[in-house]
Specification:
Helices cover 27% and strands 31% of the residues. The protein is an alpha/beta fold and 284 residues long. It has a six-stranded mixed sheet with strand order 9-8-10-11-12-13. A five-stranded mixed sheet has the order 5-6-3-4-7.
Length: 284
Amino acid sequence: MAPTINTVTDWFAQDALEQQLSAQSYSVKQWRDGRFKQVTDQLAEEVPIALVYNGVSHAVMLASPQDLEDFALGFSLTEGILQKKSDLYAVEIQTHHNGIELHLEIATEQFVNLKARRRSLVGRTGCGLCGAESLSQVFRLPETDATADTPHTTIAMHSVFKAHQAMQSLQQLQRVTGATHACAWAQTNGDIGLLREDVGRHNALDKLIGALAKQEQQGGFILTTSRASYEMVQKVAMAGFDLLAAISAPTGLAVRIAEASRITLLGFVRNQQLVAYSHADRMI
């Protein structure tokens, strides 16, 4: 049944359980065979989600209203607000008439650091540099020793193709709406261990990274159904992974960051083909 909602804010005034649904049924008119036909369609929802740290609002993002605790942790880690999972003490989800607030209680030291570099970040779906006040805030990469002989993940081609093929059947929200991205973590043998979805590719990756941090998963590699922007590579680096496989192309900046961060960056992963843009020697 199509929802009877007259305004944008009415949707948030519904039952709290309904608000956590990431898809809603809508009555639409479909043009086919030369005429309109009344049908029911499933649409992905995107909701304003505010991240509030120790009582201070820091960011507002538009995201799918599911896996919100994973999102809170993953966003905080990839933005450099938290250094480790234990810096986050609690997450409280508060629903309001016009959106959702995630209240995060974090360690005092991290909150002091956040206040020192606090910025106003008003995000939208797929936002990249929203709210950055200076060039120094654009790139957040873990410190690495360029001369160190650090071991890196070696992945077989067939493992990447196996994981890519398995992703589609696991994307439940995409299957019913056709409007979401997914990011997945696969073990080195290509078995997918975790997958998260969202209307925004960055949000999907943050949710995945948050879930991985909670489970203390390491090793393996990350896949995304989107293009590989610089920020996707940056988030993978911040999370401590060193291989990102994307279904579409990367940007030039993403490739340069992958090279500098020692990340194997793969693009156009489909139909048993791929392009290695950095560190191809780690593929076997």
